[in-house]
Amino acid sequence: MPDTPYIEVNIHSQHLTLWDGQTAIFERAVSTAKNGVGELQNTGCTPRGWLQIKAKIGADHPKHSVFVGRRATGEIYSADLNKQYPQRDWILSRILWLGGLEPHKNRYGSVDTLRRFIYIHGCPDHCPMGVPESHGCIRMRNDDVIQLFNLVNVGTKVHVVG
User: What pLDDT was estimated at residue 3?
Assistant: First the structure.
């Protein structure tokens, strides 16, 4: 367990906890990958092990801002926008871009979490939490990801268990 605050994502319970020592300071339901856990590229799985926040994206953007390729599109998510682009995997409000810390498990080569573009990010509010539905990322409600974004720093460790 790190001496500094860290995030734990429990795949089995679909729950994220921000720990400061042995005190939980933030807890929310999340949605991890529909395809389960795994580290290989192009599997749509959520990687396990020790990761860390490599970048925080979206700090000054409004809630429900739409991101594509980690860049704000200028759009604000709505039901009408969803109808217009039903194929999009919506990445909204904030992005915490994750990189692996364990060589050859979740870092480097075909298991590199950063190169797989695995994030903690917001999603449409109608998306269920507490059940695996994502394409590999860790989805959160928009208010929750904004709150978490404001509590953590680049370099904060993330432990995905399950």
Answer: 72
